[in-house]
Amino acid sequence: MRRFKVAVLVGSLRKGSYSRALARAMIGLAPETLACELVAIGELPLYDSDLEEPPGPPPAWSGFRAAIGAADAVMFVTPEYNRSVPGALKNALDVGSRPPGRSVWNGKPAAVVSNSPGAMGGFGANHHLRQSLVFLNMPVLQQPEAYIGHADSLLTQAGEFASAGARDYLDGLMKAFAGWIARTASAAAAD
Questions:
Q1: SS3 breakdown of the chain: % helix, strand, coil, rounded to 5?
Q2: What's the mean pLDDT in 118-138?
Q3: Which CATH number fits domain 4-190: 3.40.50.720, 3.20.20.70, 3.40.50.2300, 3.40.50.360?
């Protein structure tokens, strides 16, 4: 049985964010075939192509690119800011996609989980992120979709799911993502 390395990116930088708590809870649901690891994005300098020039890119960029490059897949867990993704997450996409022709995202299967304290569950962020991932050539899990509303009451203070329904839904999502990664890897190996 192959074990796939999954980089988990959290769009919110706040230590106590709903997205971070949700990501941790979902990592706890991951099937044995997935080895999930949070990859930090908060220390990445804003993308500026001038920083690619000698003496070379900032160490934070190099470390981030290496972490994503070593992953087999990527799961994005993000809140919605102004009907889109947070700037830190967009910056991470930009850092990883450069320099041209050396994108660390290329071909990696992805899952998008958006959330908000409101009822819409980050619908705008989810779709804006998916639009970028299409350009980055990342095959994105289509079903089940994950727009997690009322994220402020999803988990207990201890980080446990407050309802069996939410836990079961996200458990199903993690299993579907594991299957998606395996199918994508098999298709890539057959090419």
A1: 45, 15, 40
A2: 95
A3: 3.40.50.360
Confidence band of 190 (pLDDT split at 50, 70, 90):
confident
Q: What is the pLDDT of residue 186?
A: 80
Beta bridge partners of 81: 84
pLDDT at 191: 65
Query: Rounded to the nearest 5 degrees, what angle is found at the Cα of 64, between the Cα atoms of 154 and 95?
Result: 95
Calpha distance 1→150 (Å, rounded): 36
Contacts of 142 (CB under 8 A, 6+ apart): none
Residues 175-188: what's their mean pLDDT? 92
**73-79/34-38 β-pairing:** unpaired
Q: Where are the domains of the chain?
A: 4-190
d(CA 113, CA 117): 14
> Residue 11 CB: number of other CB atoms within 10 A?
28
pTM for this entry:
0.96
Q: What is the mean pLDDT of residues 165-182?
A: 97
Give the chain's radius of gyration (CA, Å). Answer: 16
Query: For residue 165, with 0-12 CB atoms within 10 Å meaning exposed, 13-18 middle and 19 or more buried, which class applies?
Result: exposed
